Amino acid sequence: MINLDLKSRVPIYEQLVDKVKQLIIQGVIKPDEKLPSVRSLAQELTINPNTIQKAYRELEREGYIYSLPGKGSFVGRVEGHENDRKVESLTRDFEQVTSELLYLGASKGKLINLIEDLEKERGEEDES
């Protein structure tokens, strides 16, 4: 389910954070679903448990997961106001990246096609 590139320049914990976010956003992992324990995921991925713990802390800080002492970590539910703040923040990031892409010569059509492709992928996943 989670594949990490150990040769990548991107730190392992960041790759793990990105993969878990992707699984949550795509609906593979549902709200309130229990995540694997730090120990079991570390064994499965053959990486240091501290790396898993760091990724889980970051996901919790960003509001994607929550932990219950003695129970484990679970996928969080996005509340309306939290969702609005996240959308605002991501929109600012999107504007910055889009401006940079346009400056570097990416065409408007290419960016629109990318958005449409992502929307189609998301629609197909919702139907599954």
TrEMBL record:
Database matches in SMART domains: HTH_GNTR
Cited PROSITE patterns: HTH_GNTR
Entry-linked CDD domains: WHTH_GntR
InterPro entries, sorted: Tscrpt_reg_HTH_GntR, WH-like_DNA-bd_sf, WH_DNA-bd_sf
Keyword Cell membrane: no
Pfam families (UniProt xref): GntR
MF GO annotations: DNA binding; DNA-binding transcription factor activity
Keyword DNA-binding among record annotations: yes
HTH gntR-type domain boundaries: 10-78
PANTHER family: HTH-TYPE TRANSCRIPTIONAL REPRESSOR YTRA (PTHR38445:SF9)
Protein name from the UniProt record: GntR family transcriptional regulator
Organism: Salinicoccus roseus
